[in-house]
Amino acid sequence: MKAIWNDTVLAESNDTIVIEGNHYFPPSAVNMNYFKPSDTHTTCPWKGIASYYSVHVDGKNNYDAAWYYPDPKEKVMQIKGYIAFWRGVKVVD
Fold it and tell me: Using CA atoms in the order 18, 15, 10, 91, what is the torsion angle rounded to 10 degrees?
C-alpha cells in the first residue's frame, strides 16, 4: 500500500493494519520529512484519543491529513503509533 499526496509518496508498506476501512501504516514506513505535529486531537469511543499530523509537500499544506493513536485502548493496541490518512491523501495498492 502507498499513501500519496501532491504526487509524493508519504508512506509505503505491505504491512498496514486495516480498521474501519482505513489503512494504518507502521511508523517505519512513513517519510516523516513531510509531517509536522498538529495540536488537533479527537476522541473515538473505542480506539481512544487520536493525534494528528499536517502534511507539507513542495510548499503545499494539508492540515491534519494524518492521524495516529499514541496510546490506543487495549482492543486496538496493535495500531499504537501507526499512521492513517484522509483529506485527499490517496491510499492505493
Answer: -40
Rounded to 10 degrees, the C-alpha dihedral 75/70/31/7 comes to 70
Instruction: Report the distance separating Cα 21 and Cα 18, nearest Å.
Output: 6
Q: What pLDDT was estimated at residue 37?
A: 98
- How many Cβ atoms sit within 10 Å of the Cβ of residue 56? 17
The answer to whether the predicted template modeling score (pTM) of the entire model surpasses 0.85 is yes
Picking from 88, 83, 81, the residue whose alpha carbon sits closest to that of residue 63 is 88
Owner of C-alpha cell 513531510: 34
